[in-house]
Amino acid sequence: MIVFLTGSSWELREDLPYLRRAVRAIQRNEGVLARDWIEPTFERSEHPNAKRQPIDWTKVMQGTLDAISRSDVVIIEGTSYRFSQGYQVAIALQQKKPVLLLSRSPQQNRSVSGIQNKLLTLADYQTEEDIDKIVGRFLRENAIATKDLRFNFFIDRQIYNYLRSVAFETGQNKSEIIRDLILREIHRGQKD
Amino acid sequence: MSGIATRVHLTGSSRNPAEDLPYLRQIISTVHECQGSIVLNWIETAHFKSKDSYATWDWNDIVNNNVDALKRAHVVIIEGTSHGLLQGYQLALALERRLPVLFLTRESIDTLPISGIKSRLLLIKAYKTTADLQKVITKFMEANSQAFEQPPLSETTRRFLKNQALVTGQTEAAIIDQVIQERLGRL
Fold first, then answer.
1. Domain locations along chain A
2. For chain B, what are the domain ranges?
3. Which residues of B touch A111 (CB under 8 A)?
4. Model-level pTM?
5. Do A81 and B61 touch (CB under 8 A)?
6. B60, B111, B113 ranked by CB distance to A114: nearest
7. Which fold has domain A2-141?
8. To which H or E segment does residue B8 belong?
9. Could you tell me if A121 and A101 are in contact, meaning their C-beta atoms sit under 8 angstroms apart?
10. Where are the beta strands (DSSP E) in chain A?
11. Is the domain covering B7-143 a CATH 3.40.718.10 domain?
12. Are B163 and A111 in contact (CB < 8 Å)?
């Protein structure tokens, strides 16, 4: 499983032990990091000239978006509750990726608790041991064998036109219409 | 010229209400001066409620109201000085819906990760004073005005636009713009 682990580079010093622990938990659960940014970023931030070196945010953002696209699941260390973390949550959810948002401060009373999406898991932690448990459980729950699968398939113009018009009439998206048709067929088969 | 008032979804963080409030009020007043309307007027309520603990806030309601407002808006303005997670979340939703977004901050832009997001729909501007804000917002509102010379469209074209607007959630103006951009080979 490809995992994109992300966090804030602004609070890297405080978050580092927890991010390192999360990396180990991912590896122990046979996950592979989509982007190995933590140690290089930390090394750079510890460099005496770090503050004078401008960060190429275009490159960082492109790397982040590519990593989200490549990954099966996304884990965000979100204690600092940054703008870019909210952006990444939305991008990952738009791509139907399960997202785990970790925080050392309670998320129940924060705006993120109002985002209703079954792919989004919020988890508060206090210790590095908590990280092991939370990350392990999240990866097991979203292992390929237990999660929804996706594949591409081709349709002709007639089917496409039908889907488009039903989507317009019902407000469902095309995938939902196809899923409903298949489920109806399954139920019909079970009744016969 | 005809058209409708440009509907603006204004969002910002409730983290620093005392600091942000004068600027948020200035944004609203400038939007009104530009004949625009604010879809969700949350600022005074949030300021009033900011004395209470966040525990008493109904975040489901707040997030739903913001997402609904975003769906109804023609453009989005984000006051992003306080770096809220929900503002980042809304930026991605707005860009997905192909809405023009103005991101405002009192910090230096170069130090912000958002400067790495490349989208022709996203305009990032730093400001220091309410006068700066007025200038930036007026320009943004003029550029995204929904008032347009009514083109002589056929009934078929009008129906197509209406259907596309319903299906995609975009404004009719945004669909026309997209078609023209594609024709120009810029997408």
1. 2-141, 157-191
2. 7-143, 155-184
3. 59, 62-63, 84-86
4. 0.76
5. no
6. B60
7. Rossmann fold (3.40.50)
8. strand B7-12
9. yes
10. 2-6, 32-33, 73-77, 99-103, 120-124
11. no
12. no
Q: What is the DSSP string of A39-65?
A: HHHHHHHHSTTGGGSPP-HHHHHHHHH
In this complex, is the C-beta atom of B96 within 8 Å of any C-beta atom belonging to chain A?
yes
B118 touching chain A per CB within 8 A: yes
Q: Decide which of B157 and B9 is more confident.
A: B9
For residue B112, which residues of chain A lie inside 8 Å, CB to CB?
Answer: 57, 83
Asked whether the ipTM of the predicted complex exceeds the cut of 0.95, the reply is no
Please give the Cα distance from B165 to B170 (Å, whole number): 5
Nearest-CA distance A67 → chain B (Å): 15
Chain B residue numbers with beta carbons less than 8 Å from the beta carbon of A56 are: 116
pLDDT (tens digit, 9 = 90+) per residue, B125-180?
A: 999 999 999 999 999 999 998 755 566 778 788 888 888 888 887 888 888 888 88
* pLDDT tens readout for residues B85-122: 999 999 999 999 999 999 999 988 888 889 999 999 99
Chain B contact set for A68 (CB, 8 A) = none
d(CA A64, CA B106): 25
pLDDT value of residue A22: 96
